[in-house]
Design a protein that fits this description.
It is a single chain. The chain is an alpha+beta fold and 264 residues long. It is built from 1 helix and 8 strands, in the order αββββββββ. The protein has one helix at residues 17-71, and strands at 118-124, 129-135, 148-150, 161-166, 187-191, 195-208, 235-243, 250-263. The protein starts with 16 loop residues before the first helix and ends with a strand.
Length: 264
Amino acid sequence: MRQRTRERIPVVVQRDRRGGRLAARGLWTGAELVVTLGVVLLLLVAHQLWWTNRQARAEAADTVHALQRDWGEPEGVAPAVADPSPEPAEGDSPAVGEEGGGGGGRTAAASTPRRSQAYAVIRIPRIGLTAPVAQGISKHGVLDKGYVGHYPGTAQPGGSGNFALAGHRNTHGEPFRHIDRLRAGDRITVETRDTVYTYTVDKTLARTQPGDSGVIATVPRSNVKPYVGYRTAGSYLTLTTCTPEFTSRYRLVVWGRLSDVRQR
């Protein structure tokens, strides 16, 4: 008997072209979103790392010039300062008066400035810094303008106690970016309307906790690392900033002692 040969009918599967187009469109839209997000992030980084620095440095420079005009000295010219007297040994206070006057004719900055008022100029030759010093450490009113901020409640320039300052390490002018380069013996001057105070760097605390209030105490000494700091009264300068760079996890501290006072 002959076997019947079954004929196979081919089955044609048609792909859903509409679904493929939707998938391709979804992938394209996702890629556009990723690229757009990347561009936005780059713009934000550029704004933080470049534009805020440019704006703050320009404002800080204008403020320094305005102070110099107000003080009646040529713009861009630092007053001549003689070589500071030898740095006093730890335990000896520099021969300066109490904050507000006294001390053999040497006087400290007297009245407390208004909040956010720029009233002094700090110069650190080692790192090429010239910046205004303003009262307070608020971000909007002081630090984000590229200013160096004076901790309220601490001594004024040249005063007995601790003249404590803060500044950004990154962005917004970053005046304290390179204070980690300061070494013992480096000079820091703080100029006011009538007087130029010179401090000499002699101690550094590379890292401490943000809440270590001892570093800006009248006699500065770390609460976290109590073996770092001072034990006797004097006229001190404290610089504080964030560390490591681009973070605010810890604080970097540089200390100096008053070593010279010159009237303008």
